[in-house]
Design goal:
Number of helices of chain B: 6
CATH superfamily of chain A: Glutaredoxin
Structural class of chain B: mainly beta
Structural class of chain A: alpha/beta
Largest sheet of chain B: 24 strands, antiparallel, barrel
Shape of chain B: globular
Number of helices of chain A: 5
Shape of chain A: globular
Distance between the termini of chain B: 35 Å
Strand content of chain A: 15-25%
Strand content of chain B: over 45%
Helix content of chain A: 40-55%
Helix content of chain B: under 10%
Number of domains of chain A: 1
Radius of gyration of chain A: 17 Å
CATH topology of chain A: Glutaredoxin
Oligomer: heterodimer
Largest interface: A-B, 71 and 121 residues
CATH class of chain A: Alpha Beta
Radius of gyration of chain B: 26 Å
Distance between the termini of chain A: 52 Å
Largest sheet of chain A: 7 strands, mixed
Number of strands of chain A: 7
Order of helices and strands of chain A: HEEEHEHEHEEH
Chain lengths: 170, 576
């Protein structure tokens, strides 16, 4: 049994490495999943777009501290980023029925300018193969995922900024 | 035996490997394959003081792999789970086994969406149906069957489901229970665009969910009353309802920053082990009102649930075992280490309570707000049990079993306080942008007897501070300090954690939770933890070593027990 666990672990590690390398070869687009906007109206994730300009998609929750730290850090710079690159950030909350009603007051309380969406039964999260929040990805003007990341370390917003700047230059 | 299981394991992984090799191509024709997997393993060391018992196998792990294929409107997927030697907390809840328990094929276009296989679904707020998963808690209440979604006209949404609920790794074959339901939602803003143009939102919805379970045996049920007296009741098999129906109606109304949500659910008689086999109908009411504008938000909600546990089988009782619905725990969720054990768990069979949260941002560039503003969050929540007056028949018989059980006036708070939280959180960014500080205070009252089965109440004051400092644009330090002051339960604790991160790849942390106030002198334990994580795009590898306190793990108001443990853990997650 010890053996089987070690086998699994080795497989997991190799797959992780290959998975990361394979990632860059084909650019994926966002899956089309029916979620909701803040008013509770259906919103299809294929409509996440920004007229040919880059898009940031963040998966977060009101109970997730690093998610909030990341969105707060970007909020400080967001005005400048929009002005410079025209980027648009979609903050998709995975709060469920327990806390989803508090997303709007929370977002407004923080004065965030993001487009906030609700994924109340984690359907989008599942379709995106996301294990844990925070998760963030960047789409280029054609809606292709060019960068993605999990976890948040203070300062990683600088990398996000570099990526969107490079997309605009192209 | 061991040889056989290893052989089976290798075979399963050979299959997975093929799947992966295909996925590495990512593109098959016009289709696309994606996936994710996780491995969570631990090496256990016994420790008698904290109650970490020796486990039969010291090396344990949970692992899973998801593969998804999509091509236009068509998608299909499967998940392989390997929990043969799961982490001890999963072993304790019976989440043990291996196999493909999640697989589906789905076709979606503008008007119709059809799913066959296993699926997750939620009607309204989930008061009648919520099939969902929470991997951290070991909950997977997916349904195996079929689902159809229709959009006959813009703004009209119809869903229908039929399925057998998943029960860990138990086989679906030979099961005598299933769930079916339908839900309709009308979105007036879409049907009449004028409503939306004027800034209004309005939705109404209704659903019907019913479960079937064969009844081919009389039920013998023993109960002890408050005086310690034993009594056994018998319910003949033909008196046990095989079909239990629930329905719910909901409405949402919004105008600019204001929004009101309401949902009421009703359940017909459903004698089951969690309600001592009474015939009383159940009901639940969920109300929520929010108002927000830039820099300010207020949210108030109310919940009442009475005899509303709704499970696929009448003898199911453990945690979320075979739960069909989910009554939300509306209190504010915290991630503070020291009050993790005192998180409120939703009581579907009897709770009434309210929650109020106010968010305010002291404007940027003001004296108190500083250059970047200061965020304030105030929170209050209080939950009680419901009033329960036994019916005469139950008093005469000496047992509620087989009777209507009790009566309860709807808006009356019951005699027992279950949970109360008064909290204030201040989040400030200093003018020197490198510093950020969150300071929080909470006064928590938690009913140990009803929520954990220990004695008494826990009343505790928590002060928590979270200070971060960005040394350079990529290097940052974060210091968490917490103090829980209480005379109850295990007494006071203090917690400190220092995290050092190098963006975007590295995380290091050391932490110690010291239960210095434990009434037992040799239990004033240090629960220390050292961890290191490496993140590369969507792959995260984390190593940790330390002690975990016996307690409760709650995610969103759903809780399960966590046994004490000591050891070294490794977790790997990735998606591709």
């Amino acid at each position: 049994m010890k053996k089987s666990i070690i086998i699994i672990l080795c497989l997991t590690l190799t797959i992780s490495v290959f998975a990361q390398e394979a990632k860059d070869k084909h650019l994926a687009k966002l899956p089309a999943v029916e979620i909701q906007d803040l008013n509770g109206n259906p919103f299809n994730t294929k409509d996440i777009q920004n007229d040919g300009k880059p898009v940031i998609v963040s998966l977060w929750a009101t109970w997730c501290k690093p998610c909030i730290a990341e969105l707060l850090a970007i909020a400080d710079e967001y005005e400048d980023w929009v002005e410079e690159t025209g980027v648009k950030l979609y903050a998709v909350s995975i709060d469920d029925a327990k806390t989803s009603a508090r997303v709007a007051p929370f977002v407004n309380g923080k004065n965030w300018e993001y487009t906030v969406l609700l994924d109340v039964n984690s359907d989008f999260k599942r379709a995106m193969n996301v294990n844990d929040v925070p998760y963030m990805c960047i789409l280029n003007g054609d809606g292709e995922i060019v960068w993605q990341h999990t976890s948040y370390a203070p300062g990683s917003e600088e990398e996000v900024y570099e990526v969107i700047k490079s997309l605009v230059k192209k | 035996m061991v040889f056989k299981s290893i052989k089976r394991l290798l075979l399963a992984f050979a299959l997975l490997w093929c799947g992966f090799m295909a996925s590495a191509q990512h593109q098959i024709g016009n289709g696309r394959i994606s996936g994710d997997f996780g491995f969570n393993g631990m090496y256990y060391i016994p420790d008698s003081i904290i109650g970490a018992e020796p486990v039969d196998s010291k090396v344990r792990a949970n692992a899973f792999l998801n593969i998804l294929y999509s091509n236009g409107g068509f998608s299909a997927g499967a998940r392989y789970e390997f929990y043969m030697f799961p982490l001890i907390d999963f072993e304790k809840i019976g989440y043990k086994g291996q196999g493909i328990k999640y697989f589906f094929a789905d076709y979606t276009n503008k008007f119709i969406s059809v799913t066959a296989g296993t699926f997750y679904e939620q009607f309204g707020n989930g008061l009648t149906l919520r099939a969902y998963e929470d991997r951290q808690l070991g909950i997977d209440n997916s349904l195996l069957g079929a689902r159809i979604k229709l959009t006959p006209y813009k703004g009209i949404y119809i869903k229908g489901v039929w399925g057998i609920e998943r029960n860990n790794f138990e086989s679906y074959i030979g099961r005598h229970d299933y769930v079916r339901g339908a839900d309709v939602e009308l979105s007036f803003g879409e049907i009449f665009p004028i409503i939306q143009e004027k800034g209004f939102t309005a939705h109404v919805g209704a659903n019907f969910v019913s479960k079937y379970e064969l009844s081919d045996q009389d039920i013998y049920y023993a109960i002890t009353d408050s005086t310690g007296e034993y009594s056994t009741a018998v319910i003949p098999q033909d008196k046990i309802p095989e079909n239990v129906a629930t329905w719910a109606a909901r409405a949402t109304f919004g105008y600019e920053g204001f929004r009101l949500d309401a949902e009421y659910a009703h359940k017909i008689n459903d004698p089951n082990i969690t309600n001592d086999f009474i015939y009383k109908p159940g009901n639940a009411l969920f109300l929520s009102a929010t108002y927000s504008m830039k820099g300010f938000g207020i949210a108030a909600s109310f919940i009442r649930a009475d005899n509303m546990e709704f499970r696929s089988q009448r003898w199911a009782y453990y945690n979320s075992e075979l739960m069909i619905n989910c009554i939300p725990a509306i209190n504010r969720q915290y991630s503070y280490q020291l009050i993790g054990d005192y998180s409120y768990a939703s009581q579907c069979n009897g709770q009434i309570g309210a929650q109020l949260q106010i968010n305010y941002q002291i404007p940027k560039k003001s004296v108190l707000g500083g250059k970047y503003g200061t965020d304030l969050t105030f929170n209050y929540s209080r939950f009680h049990d419901i009033e329960q007056i036994p019916v005469q028949e139950a008093i005469d018989l000496g047992t509620p079993t087989g009777t209507m059980g009790y009566t309860s006036s709807f808006f009356k708070f019951g005699p027992d306080l279950l949970y109360q939280d008064i909290g204030l959180e201040i989040s400030h960014r200093f003018n020197d942008k490198r510093w950020k500080w969150i300071l929080a205070y909470n006064y928590i009252t938690y009913n140990l007897e009803i929520l954990q089965g220990h004695e008494g109440m826990m009343r505790g004051h928590l002060v928590a501070s979270d200070l971060s400092y960005k040394i350079t644009p990529k290097h940052a330090l974060r210091l968490e300090l917490q103090h829980l002051y209480t005379k109850d339960d295990d007494g006071s604790s203090i917690y400190a954690m220092l995290e050092y991160s190098i963006s975007p790849n590295w995380f290091f942390s050391v932490g110690d939770d010291w239960n210095y106030g434990n009434p037992l002198p040799d239990h004033k334990t240090h629960y220390y933890n050292i961890s290191c994580a490496y993140v590369w795009n969507t792959t995260r590898i984390a190593l940790n070593f330390g002690k975990t306190k016996e307690g409760i793990l709650c995610v969103g108001g759903v809780c399960r027990a966590v046994p004490a443990s000591y050891g070294c853990g490794l977790s790997v997650t990735t998606s591709f």
